[in-house]
Design brief:
single chain, 460 residues, alpha/beta, D-Maltodextrin-Binding Protein, domain 2, 2 domains, seven-stranded mixed β-sheet, five-stranded mixed β-sheet, globular
Length: 460
């Protein structure tokens, strides 16, 4: 005890000293945050930290400023966007007023916007495709958003925006836009049917994909219905992003050292693989509605866009099919890949005040709350990883959407070139032509050579 008692005394003295420096929980004063026109101050009892904007815009000049925003949407998306506009107009602290005008689709939007650029009727903000942003930036009519993103006061923390989203809108060192919506083509696989075919795992390579597709086709030929004998495997999809995703899955693509290159060994392997799949009747064409065919077990695999997932759910319900179906990447030995695409917010060049006002609206649109509402309305990817925290109920009711979100680490970019606007159309046309005329698998190099020649001509 003689040795222990002094130790207790020492501990008592230390604890007494610590308690003298702590503030009781009930008396704690929260840090106060005050935002002025150009600075933000965070105060505590010990220190004061001031955040100052580097944009050198008088915030008073934003009051009552009117912005014109042009969109490619109609229907549900346009309706929700106009709701966002109304909420922003009512609640934003700067008094900015936004008006939204639909241009119906991306093609019309690009043409109308391009025609308006020399006039005073051009928009302040456009929601268009990344390749549109690249083209307009090359023409010097859009704003490099780097200083806005990095501004200490009005910037954007982008560390929870996936790489495949955030990196798309870059030209050299300039940020030509920021993501507005992102989606991808994905593979769907009927797991229940696969189990019945003694297939226990999803295809993790192109060879496994071919084996499973061919097994499904063989099974169709063994039932009592002759009309489905040509069905069973993958329903051919000639959408440009499907062709691009297959090329990526084989390690290919459409660019080499910044130039278009279609005639490459990897691309030849991809196209040859797909044509051989058709030649073996393990991939088939002619489905009136691939989603309905998938729900009716006429295909083990189909490819769809993320926005199609609710339609697949409804199709299964309509035929009372309780099979489990799963979202997969395009298969390869590296875990698979998906090609990500979608629209972006593009701030057109105008006055410093109008550019900042447009940026403040964009930043507000990228908040988690608005991001979550976009997901629930469109069924596309959340732009921020942290937004998933607001989508717990949505995840439970849309398990395949969750599976798609989990594939984002395998997402890959589109070409960061304005010419991709026309090249991707050519890619889709060439891919469809290959099936339309039944090009033999040994001659796919000729199709790719034609694509490369056309790409070089179109990109001049």
């Amino acid at each position: 005890m003689k040795k222990i008692l002094p130790l207790f005394l020492v501990l008592s003295i230390i604890l007494s000293a610590c308690s003298a420096t702590e503030t009781p929980a009930g008396d704690t004063k929260p840090a106060s945050t005050k935002q002025g026109n150009e600075t933000e101050t965070v105060s505590t009892e010990e220190s004061s930290v001031e955040t100052v904007s580097r944009l050198e815009v008088d915030m008073e000049a934003l009051k009552g400023l009117e912005l014109s925003v042009w969109t490619p949407w109609y229907g549900v998306e346009q309706g929700l966007f106009e709701t966002f506009v109304s909420e922003f107009n009512t609640n934003n602290e700067w008094g900015i007023k936004v008006t939204a005008q639909s241009q119906i689709n991306f093609t019309n939007l690009y043409e109308v916007t391009t025609a308006s650029l020399p006039t005073e009727d051009r928009p302040d903000l456009v929601i268009a495709l990344p390749e549109h942003a690249q083209s307009w930036f090359a023409d010097g009519v859009t704003t490099d958003l780097t200083e806005y993103v990095e501004d200490p006061l009005y910037g954007l923390k982008a560390d929870d925006i996936p790489f495949a989203f955030w990196s798309q809108d870059i030209s050299g060192k300039a940020r030509v836009a920021v993501p507005a919506q992102r989606t991808a083509q994905v593979m769907l696989w009927n797991q229940t049917w696969a189990d019945e075919l003694n297939i226990n795992v999803a295809p993790a390579s192109a060879d496994a994909f071919r084996s499973q597709a061919c097994r499904a086709h063989t099974a169709m030929g063994k039932d009592a219905f002759a009309e489905n004998d040509a069905m069973g495997g993958w329903i051919v999809d000639t959408q440009p992003m499907t062709a691009y995703a297959w090329m990526l899955s084989f390690g290919g693509g459409v660019l080499e050292e910044g130039n278009y290159r279609f005639l490459s060994p990897d691309n030849i392997d991809a196209f040859k693989f797909l044509r051989e799949l058709s030649e073996a009747n393990c991939a088939w064409q002619g489905a009136a509605d691939p989603i309905s065919s998938f729900a009716n077990r006429e295909a083990l695999f189909i490819t769809v866009s993320l926005s199609d997932l609710p339609n697949v759910t409804r199709a299964f319900a309509s035929v009372e099919n309780r099979d489990t179906w799963v979202v997969l990447p395009f298969p390869n030995k590296n875990g698979g890949s998906i090609a990500v695409y979608g629209s972006s917010y593009i701030v057109m060049k105008s006055t410093p005040e109008e550019q900042l006002a447009a940026w403040l609206f964009v930043r507000w649109l990228l908040d988690n709350e608005q991001d979550a509402r976009w997901v629930e309305a469109t069924h596309l990817f959340p732009l921020r990883e942290s937004t998933v925290n607001l989508l717990g109920d949505y995840e439970k009711n849309h398990p395949q959407w969750k599976q798609a979100v989990e594939l984002l680490s395998q997402g890959e970019l589109q070409p960061q070139l304005g010419s991709w606007r026309t090249i991707k159309v050519m890619l889709g046309d060439g891919f469809a032509h290959m099936y339309r005329v039944n090009v033999p698998s040994g001659q796919v190099a000729a199709i790719l050579a034609q694509m490369e020649t056309m790409a070089k001509d179109l990109s001049k």
